[in-house]
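Researcher: Let's do a round of design. I'm pasting the structure tokens now; please hold your answer until I've finished.
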């Protein structure tokens, strides 16, 4: 089979979906679970269905009363699962190769797309190879990078080996940034294609700014509101966000810190910074209002494969202070719509934060330029690109 390569983030538009594909999409997370994988994958699936493709979604059963959805052009197949250690709100799909072989023998898909690399994903890969079905995959989570933050850094090499084997058995692996593609190719991943993540620019919009919400945080028009969005966990490098808040508070008379998200570090963060607002998990429409009502996003994580927070903030007219990695490296223009510092250089991050606090006009100017940079990342365009890749993979396999 011919490898597929492209150095473009957004490639040429593909023609309307003809012929329609029968797709099996395998994932271990799906709404109402709230995380970057489930939310972005659901948007992509909706886009593919809108382009007249038939999607079979295969995922773990989330609760005992969970029922499979069956609609025209979309149906679910629910599998066994168990809670993920340290992430009890998420499920790990259990092995199910036999069930998948039976289902795909009865109704053969044109292509299998695997979004997660857990036991269910591995079973899907083995079942697809057994039936000689074309397979593509996503690389969505830096599990090998997370190992350091959970005291099992010694597992990094075997995790990388497993992920490399997994993805190299597929015809194509999709990643969201050029930097991640380069990193994976350096360690032996093959046939890696950049596909940017989309953002709902109608939902994430500066017009959702709410003075009432700001007031609930104790913020006035003169306040400087810092927003941190994401899981409150070790891999998110939240110590740097707290230090940035402390630094900025010495340079500006009224700085507020708002966390949106939940996780194992919530209580310790609350104890260390009792003046911060901890809003917990929020549905997407509320999250959009939080973005638009803040003044700048602090994004200190260096373990992201993408970082949806970056593009959601920019679409909301909110500048971003981040390390020069993942989505920030592709979509933040330094001193244009945000600010970038070298990865892991906390001193530089804190210095940049101090300068911004002393010059809040720079933040307002960057906010006015933020949205234009991500206007092209609509989900219709992303679905069109993925559709084209699926068609090319299916065509190469059947030759």
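Researcher: That's everything. Go ahead.
Model: Designed sequence:
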């Amino acid at each position: 089979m011919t490898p597929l390569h492209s150095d473009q983030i957004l490639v040429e538009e593909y023609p309307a979906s003809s012929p329609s594909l029968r797709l099996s999409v395998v994932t271990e997370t799906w709404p109402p679970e709230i995380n970057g994988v489930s939310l972005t994958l659901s948007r992509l699936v909706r886009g593919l269905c809108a382009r007249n493709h038939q999607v079979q979604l295969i995922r773990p059963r989330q609760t005992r009363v969970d029922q499979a959805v069956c609609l025209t052009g979309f149906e679910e197949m629910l599998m066994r699962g168990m809670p993920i250690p340290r992430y009890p709100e998420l499920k790990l799909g259990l092995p199910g190769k036999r069930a998948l072989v039976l289902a795909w023998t009865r109704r053969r898909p044109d292509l299998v797309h695997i979004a997660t690399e857990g036991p269910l994903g591995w079973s899907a890969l083995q079942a697809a190879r057994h039936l000689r079905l074309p397979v593509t995959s996503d690389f969505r989570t830096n599990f090998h990078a997370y190992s350091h933050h959970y005291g099992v850094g010694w597992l990094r090499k075997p995790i990388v080996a497993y992920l490399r084997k997994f993805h190299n058995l597929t015809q194509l692996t999709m990643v969201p940034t050029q930097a991640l593609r380069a990193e994976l190719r350096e360690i032996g991943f093959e046939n890696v294609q950049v596909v940017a993540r989309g953002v709902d620019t109608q939902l994430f919009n500066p017009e959702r700014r709410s003075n009432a919400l700001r007031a609930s945080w104790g913020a006035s028009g003169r306040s400087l509101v810092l927003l941190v969005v994401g899981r409150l966990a070790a891999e998110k490098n939240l110590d740097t966000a707290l230090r940035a808040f402390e630094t900025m508070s010495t340079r500006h008379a009224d700085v507020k810190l708002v966390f949106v998200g939940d996780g194992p570090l919530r209580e310790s963060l609350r104890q260390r910074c009792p003046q911060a607002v901890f809003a917990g998990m929020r549905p997407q429409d509320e999250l959009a209002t939080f973005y638009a009502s803040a003044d700048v996003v602090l994004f200190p994580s260096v373990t992201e494969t993408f970082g949806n927070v970056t593009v959601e903030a920019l679409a909301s007219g909110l500048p971003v202070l981040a390390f020069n990695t993942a989505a920030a490296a592709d979509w933040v223009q330094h001193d244009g719509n945000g600010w970038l510092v070298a990865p892991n250089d906390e001193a530089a991050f804190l210095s940049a934060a101090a300068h911004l606090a002393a010059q809040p006009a720079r933040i307002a100017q960057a906010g006015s330029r933020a949205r234009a940079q991500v206007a092209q990342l609509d989900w219709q365009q992303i679905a069109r690109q993925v559709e084209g890749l699926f068609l090319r993979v299916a065509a190469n396999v059947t030759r």
